[in-house]
Amino acid sequence: MNEHVQPATGAPLFNPLAPEFIRNPYPYYEKLRATDPMHLSPFGMWVSSRHAESSLVLRDKRFGKDFVDRTIRRYGPKIMEEPVFRSMSHWMLQADPPDHTRLRGLVVKAFTARRVEDMRPRIQAIVDENLDRIIPQGKMDLIEDFAFRLPVTIICDMLGIPEEHREGFYASSREGGRLLDPVPLSADEIKKGNEGFALSAMYFQQLIELRRKNPGDDLTTQLVQAEEAGDKLSTDELIANIVLLFGAGHETTVNLIGNGLLALFRNPDQLALLKARPELITNAVEEFLRYDSSVQLTGRVALEDIEDLGGRKIAKGDSVLCLLGSANHDPAVYPDHPERLDITRPNVRPLSFGGGIHHCLGAQLARIEAEVAISTLLRRIPDLRLDDAENPEWRPTFVLRGLKRLPASW
Prior knowledge:
By secondary structure, the protein is α+β, with helices and mostly antiparallel strands.
């Protein structure tokens, strides 16, 4: 174990829930890439910090999710009796083929580039309506009042959640992120997770009943019809994947918009450049994804022994955590000052949306939402300024990297 500890401080190289790590993980990543790029963490998981190994693991068929066995290895055999873990075991995000192929096949059509591009006017209208309401106030929290409302509204549209049910979602807390962190949860945190899941499941159960009686042109109706056809989807899978689509459909986009805005305001030259050349927004969003990814890590399990991954032997059943945020700053791929925000950077292809069969379903939707939100905000509130760009309050989660709040005024 000792060779994995920094000799000077005795602190572990990878301690993702330490406040200073959450505030700025990038110096730690740099150290990992330089000194121990396939690092064995105290919890016995491999931590991959370079682009080469991480992108390989995401695409290589010798790695999978293996969710149930992996979770039992971590928590013991009774863990799958916990409702929140049982539900997560049905997520397409945690599934391996053939289940993954079947589940993803049911929703993939709703997220094609064409369907998503057609949503641009609706996205623009939501952002404008929201700003019409807020601009007279002279101040707002860019997370809750701005970044949060757009993706929540869009995913409500897509899932067919009626207008009159939405206020609750706009006001709901964003506490679920810890479930995804690579650090075992306490009994209390599992209990909280179960309570959060029970509330969601209760609501989505009602939505499902509503769509059985009144089918609509939405994802929930589509999934209900697949479940009713009998062979495509079980009821547990139906609820679990609607919960997943709702969470995944807004959580990370909120963070992309928030992290992107913070990065711009911390780099006034880049902010000025984007205001002067609004057409740079498409490339700017790729750079925001690279520079401070709203998903910092994704994991896989070795489905067989791997002789050599970054100079290490990986045994069947071992977990490999791919540090997407670190891969995005790897000088092997981004030789020109990867730690710098550069919205004109060429060939930005961030790993932020994962890779392989689990490549993010909503990647294109997230990009367009961020593009429209950020460019419209800068155009309509040209004198916007952050109250405190230096010490913003981060959420205490690591996998999902985002701000708790970001107060601004004009």
